[in-house]
Write a structure and sequence with these properties.
mainly beta; five-stranded mixed β-sheet
Length: 224
């Protein structure tokens, strides 16, 4: 069994994004929609729509906007889901996450890693929820089939602090079935689990979110 750290990241990271970087006065933004029961959503930067009609369970393509202090608005139709101020950095891809029918976003978090077109690309995303009661120190246990140099039942373990927004780099897996199980650190009680098929060239984000009652929920988001 191998253990890896799922690193938390700050609002103003300095690493390069998945795709080519913007100009010195431009920022890249992306929207993830993981709010079941909420219709398609739009992202507006400074009252200008930059991402529109994003469906649940999807991540948007990357949009380029002016960098610096901006008002960020997310809406569904004419309903305002949430609004906040952010300093959009040109140094990295700014990812905004909509969850729980509101802007219970991880504000703006860093995205790192490049897509491998010959492998399945998977990442882990933690969405900070309203509850901070234990357990919050978790292990994300990733089991994937047909991985080179690993036994069929091998498990990779990633440490995660559920109180800290995090957005991991892409992990490159051979195509096949992937299971991600979240448990309290050092324990075996299953808090949330997802199982899905990852195919060559695809990108999947496994998101973990915590409700106000302390329960965890995991789901899979398709990235373009």
């Amino acid at each position: 069994m191998k253990r890896f750290a799922l690193m938390a990241v700050a609002v103003l990271g300095a690493c390069q994004a998945d795709s080519g970087g913007p100009g010195p006065d431009q920022a890249q933004v992306r929207l993830l929609h993981v709010s079941p029961g909420t219709g398609t959503v739009d992202l507006l930067i400074g009252n200008t729509p930059v991402i529109q009609n994003l469906e649940f369970g999807k991540a948007s393509s990357i949009a380029t906007v002016a960098a610096g202090n901006q008002e960020v608005l997310v809406r569904s139709g004419t309903q305002e889901i949430g609004r906040f101020a952010a300093n959009l950095s040109a140094a990295h891809l700014n990812s905004v996450i909509v969850a729980s029918g509101a802007v219970s976003m991880s504000t703006v978090v860093l995205d790192t890693g490049s897509v491998n077109p010959t492998r399945a690309n998977v990442r882990l995303v933690n969405i900070v929820g309203p509850s901070s009661a234990d357990p919050t120190l978790l292990d994300a246990r990733l089991q994937a089939t047909n991985q080179p140099g690993q036994a069929p039942d091998s498990v990779q373990v990633f440490g995660m602090d559920a109180k800290v927004a995090s957005y991991s780099s892409l992990m490159y897996l051979n195509p096949g079935e992937v299971t991600v199980t979240f448990v309290p650190r050092g324990a075996t009680t299953v808090l949330a689990q997802v199982r899905f098929t990852a195919t060559t060239g695809t990108k999947k984000a496994v998101t973990l979110e915590r409700a106000a009652n302390g329960t965890y929920h995991a789901q899979v988001v398709d990235e373009p």
